[in-house]
Design brief:
heterodimer, A: 218 residues, MetI-like fold, B: 256 residues, alpha/beta, six-stranded mixed beta sheet, 10 strands, binds adenosine-5'-diphosphate, binds magnesium ion, transport (chain B), Polar amino acid ABC transporter ATP-binding protein (chain B), ATP binding (chain B)
């Protein structure tokens, strides 16, 4: 039985719909992981201990355990305490927080390496520490870590396939459904791989645009 | 309240880092419109004293007053933060390394704080930016990012940024020390202009000629104490203390 891609067009609609889900989940989770990463970083560096310590625990859970387990916890576990999230929302939260923890590590280092004179200059004109962080320090720190955050976002896109296990019909699960109907795993997995690659290219393109905009001020 | 009759008053300033005493009971008064220069060898505590004026470095003893209000008031943390942020709006500071915000244009550097703290409209903010950058001769670079400016230009934008808050007092910490020699004059010119407008200023500097030409009074510091203080004619031409003479001899010889 050789490769036969003529079976693909009949199922292209599910695959494309899967693509849309993957893009939507990846983008939403990326946005959550970016802003969550900033919030986590600020808490880790400047939060009072009674907020910092619980966050350390959350951070440990998200870094030290498999993403798959985290998705199960959020989707199946939370139901038990009355939080019944739609699967795609659970997926976005799981992916988003998981990568927020990784982004937070990058952003913390970047915040600490912003020249101390920046905070001083901002305080000197009368800004509070929070205002100085928000307007002066964090924008510079984030600017410095756009490339490594971009790498995390590509990892996020790939890991978004994991949300198929909680039943979100994203690209991987859609491919599996098409395979179920046709018994053509090789073709449909290749098609899915091609679509991941294209989405990946799109993300890299977006990242380059952001980097180019930032480089104007360097 | 203690009676307070000078515009800026530093009373018995004392500062220690652990066992290292960096400022040893320093007092200094500056009247409105006066310009005081602080000179002295490196490590003598000049920056620390200047930075105590806006509490960037907190004193371990003593008081700082500006225009009848104590800067380093003893207040509970939250209240103190509010108080000091308000006080700092009245005290402009210029650093040796400029510390411009690199992610903002010259215009944005100048208006960020006024916009945030005084709620300026966009129109007023633009007017303010143009006005202040014109004053330092940087209007033609208003939309440049700092990375595209020379050191002298950066420092002039930094001065405009400080002036945009309409401060009552300006502090300069070796504003020209990091500049290539040929860029020093453009910054000195701006400071001279401020002097002509009777801005009250405290200037830490290594440039004796410039200090002599603009200031009303010179303070010579060494090892955390004020060794000698007086009008520039006296301190530079006829110092009474040996340590001052020695410092000036080394410094003027080095410069010549
Ligand atoms: N954060 C600090 N911790 C410890 N020592 C410091 C600190 N800042 C300054 N000093 C010390 O205080 C002394 C005075 O420093 P400074 O005010 O910067 O001197 P100047 O500006 O006259 O060169 C120096 O001996 C310096 O090493
Ligand atoms: Mg100094």
């Amino acid at each position: 039985m050789g490769l036969d891609f003529t079976v693909v067009p009949a199922h292209l609609d599910i695959i494309l719909l899967g693509c849309l889900w993957t893009i939507a989940i990846a983008v939403a989770a990326a946005v959550l992981s970016f802003f969550g990463g900033i919030v986590f970083a600020v808490i880790a560096l400047y939060g009072p201990w009674f907020i910092r310590l619980p966050f350390r625990l959350i951070e440990w859970v998200f870094m030290g355990t498999p993403l798959l387990l985290q998705l199960f916890l959020i989707y199946f576990g939370l139901v038990q305490i009355g939080i019944d999230l739609p699967a795609f929302v659970a997926g976005i939260i799981g992916l988003g927080l998981h990568f927020a923890v990784y982004n937070s590590e990058l952003i913390q280092t970047a915040i600490l390496s912003v020249d101390k004179g920046q905070m001083e200059a901002a305080r000197t004109v009368g800004l509070s520490r929070g205002q100085a962080l928000r307007k002066v320090v964090i924008p510079q720190a984030v600017r410095d870590v756009i490339p490594p955050i971009g790498n995390n976002m590509i990892a996020l896109l790939k890991d978004s396939a994991l949300v198929s296990v909680i039943g979100v019909s994203e690209l991987t699960l859609s491919a599996q459904r098409a395979i179920g109907a046709t018994y053509r795993p090789f073709e449909f997995y290749l098609v899915a791989a091609a679509f991941y690659y294209v989405i990946n290219l799109g993300m890299e393109w977006a990242q380059r645009r952001i980097e180019r905009r930032i480089s104007i001020s360097r | 309240m203690t009676d307070q009759s000078h515009f800026v008053e530093i009373r018995h300033a004392q500062k220690s880092y652990g066992t290292l005493e960096v400022l040893k009971d320093i007092s200094l008064n500056v009247e409105r419109g006066q310009i005081v220069a602080i000179i002295g060898p490196s490590g003598s505590g000049k920056s620390t004293l200047l930075r105590a004026v806006n509490d960037l470095d907190s004193l371990t003893g003593g008081e700082v007053w500006l225009d009848g209000v104590q800067v380093n008031k003893d207040l509970p943390h939250r209240q103190y933060e509010k108080h000091i942020n308000a006080m700092r709006q009245d005290i402009g500071m210029v650093f040796q390394h400029f510390n411009l915000f690199p992610h903002l244009t010259a215009r944005e550097n100048v208006v960020m704080a006024p916009k945030m703290l005084k709620g300026l409209s966009k129109e007023d903010a633009n007017k303010l930016a143009e006005e202040q950058l014109e004053k330092v001769g940087m209007l033609d670079r208003i939309d440049y990012y700092p990375s595209r400016l020379s050191g002298g230009q950066k420092q002039r934008v930094a001065i405009a940024r400080a002036l945009a808050m309409k401060p009552k007092l300006m502090l300069f910490d070796e504003a020209t020390s990091a500049l290539d020699p040929e860029l020093v004059d453009e910054v000195n010119m701006v400071m001279k202009k401020l002097a002509e407008e009777h801005m009250t200023m405290i200037i830490v500097t290594h440039e004796m000629d410039f200090a002599a030409s603009v200031c009303d009074r010179v303070l010579f510091m060494d090892q955390g104490v004020v060794v000698e203080e007086g009008p520039p004619e006296i301190v530079f031409k006829n110092p009474t203390k040996d340590r001052t003479r020695e410092f000036l001899r080394k410094h003027l010889a080095g410069a010549a």
